[in-house]
Design brief:
By secondary structure, this protein is of the alpha/beta class. It contains five helices and nine strands, in the order H-E-E-H-E-H-E-H-E-E-H-E-E-E. The protein has one domain: 3-Layer(aba) Sandwich (Rossmann fold), CATH 3.40.50. The chain is globular and about 50 Å long. Bound molecules: S-adenosyl-L-homocysteine. The site of S-adenosyl-L-homocysteine has 23 residues, from strand 2, helix 3 and strand 4. Its EC number is 2.1.1.77. It comes from Sphaerochaeta halotolerans. One of its GO terms (cellular component) is cytoplasm. Keywords: Cytoplasm, Methyltransferase, S-adenosyl-L-methionine, Transferase.
């Protein structure tokens, strides 16, 4: 892992992103419940996904599935602007409160259907999806900029492949499988 990422990973206290009684378990490298049937991934996977996104400070990033806001903190730390979409209002509100208290001013929050992306702020240099669809939503592919990278788990409930999707400068898309993973389902209306 890159040194700056490693440093940030060690410094970010995950207990700030979960409620009792899970705070005591937050230092374990294990997924944890965040309410509403949703979970926060194990920290090592969050760090790995962040690394695979190859971020820099010039990037505008779309995140689908704000959840607790833990992954959003990584994105905000290593990119320019973060646009994060969450369907559950209460989770979005709580995440905003936590991330505001940590001082992040480059995160923009929206409550809504992430399968539609956030067209008003497209295109995005990077897209991070932290809930799994059965196939990559068309809107997200459309909203990925040329030379963009998207990290997304794709597959049926309970078992998915984590994909790295790359759009070249001419707009052609290719994908590579990174890992087998388990994420909550990306709700599709
Ligand atoms: N990255 C988060 C974990 C996200 S869990 C973290 O670090 O805590 C996946 C999240 O995706 C859940 O909060 C769930 O409510 C949200 N989600 C599921 N389907 C969605 C959709 N269609 N649009 C937006 N958010 C969605």
């Amino acid at each position: 892992m890159d040194e700056k990422l490693q440093q940030f990973f060690s410094s970010l206290d995950r207990s700030r992103f979960v409620d009792e009684p899970y705070k005591a378990l937050s230092s374990l490298d294990h997924p944890l419940p965040i309410g509403y049937g949703q979970t926060i991934s194990q920290p090592s996977l969050v760090a790995y996904m962040t690394e695979q996104l190859e971020l820099n400070k010039k990037h505008t990033v779309l995140e689908i599935g704000t959840g607790s806001g833990y992954q959003s903190a990584f994105l905000a730390e290593f990119s320019g602007e973060v646009y994060t979409v969450e369907r559950i209002n209460e989770l979005s509100k709580k995440a905003k409160k936590r991330l505001d208290s940590l001082g992040y001013k480059n995160i923009h929050y929206r409550v809504g259907d992430g399968t539609l992306g956030w067209p008003e702020h497209a295109p995005f240099d990077r897209i991070m999806v932290t809930a799994a669809p059965s196939k990559i939503p068309e809107a997200l592919l459309d909203q990925l900029a040329p030379e963009g990278i998207m990290i997304i788990p794709v597959g049926p409930e309970g078992w998915q492949e984590l994909l790295k999707v790359i759009k070249d400068r001419h707009g052609s898309v290719s994908e590579r499988k990174l890992l087998d993973v388990t994420f909550v389902t990306l709700v599709d209306k």
